[in-house]
Amino acid sequence: MANAAALSQRHSVVAVDVDPRRVDMVNAYQSPIVDVELEAYLATKPTTLVATQSLKEAVEGADVMLVATPTDYDPETNYFDTSSVESVVAEALESAPGLVVIIKSTVPVGFTGSLAEAFPGACIVFSPEFLREGRAFYDCIHPSRIVVGDRGDVGASVGEMLASVTVDGDAPVLQTGPTEAEAIKLFSNTYLALRVSFFNELDTFAATFGLDTRQIIDGVSLDPRIGSHYNNPSFGYGGYCLPKDTKQLLANYSRVPQNLISAVVDANRTRKEFIVDQILERKPSVVGIFRLAMKLGSDNYRSSSIQGIVSRLQARGVPVILYEPSVEEDAFNGVEVVNELAEFKRRADVIIANRHSAELEDVSERVYSRDVFQRD
User: Fold this and answer.
1) CA-CA distance, 226 to 248, in Å (whole number)?
2) Model confidence over 54-66: pLDDT tens digits?
3) Sheet holding 100-103, edge to edge
4) Given 241, 292, 318, 352, which residue is catalytic?
5) What torsion, rounded to 10 degrees, do the Cα atoms 164, 190, 106, 147 define?
6) Model confidence, pTM
7) 373 located within any domain
8) Both 158 and 194 in a single domain?
9) What's the pLDDT score for residue 190?
């Protein structure tokens, strides 16, 4: 959605989604995701952006197609499930064989090469994206870098197209081989997971020995080589990308010596166990889960770390209720949803929140959180 909107600043764009509700929202210039800058852009009613459920209709007459379908990690195969990418590419090339296909979905190392072999003569380029939840449109027009997995003229034109809609116009454009581009994405997210894990383990140490987590992090982060960014403790790294991308990178290491990557995966599991033990020390009768989203200003809670906490509490037989206004059902993954905030506060004697919220200040003595900086 963010890419579609950003590109529509200078190009005609047709967005495709299987969900008719989302299609209707885009055609009404409403954002289907929580993203402040995206919402503001759509409010200008860009006529260069329309949406449809028909992929065939969308690629008719198109020069370029971006594919951003889900690639969930399959624990049984120890691999990303790339079937949605493959089916979309096959359907699109059947209708428009001359199409330049740009893969934005995160894929295993080596996937683009195998896809190109499956469609000889097709122009398929992998270009990873580095977007934050809730700030995806901003990151599209203010990118940290543009990586294009093609060293030739096609890669140059793709990089030029993506750079043409940026605000500053000075984002570095890096042309690489397709496999190197895939590795850049996986190693980038694994480093972020490693950094989250490091500060979480620092916090675990401090909590265990009764130390002031914030003072330690402030002192460590004053070293300019470390920096004071991305250092706020949490319930573990989560979201749609970091857990699955780290596991996929570990799977790609099957024949390569390593210790660190597997330690990052293990550290996230250990952190969640520690958090649960800390909660249980309070001997709760009912644990309230305040919101599922990982970050402030986002409604995306796919694979959020707090869900791992919930499942562990359930496994220990602890009654759990959930406050999450974006969930309209009466239950979520077997957890009762209580979306009347006053009732939620009344029933839960321990409330866990991954991030600080002013809505909980009146019950702060019952809130458990590791958010020491009150920011993402």
Assistant:
1) 26
2) 999 999 999 999 9
3) 64-67, 100-103, 123-126
4) 241
5) 30
6) 0.87
7) no
8) no
9) 87
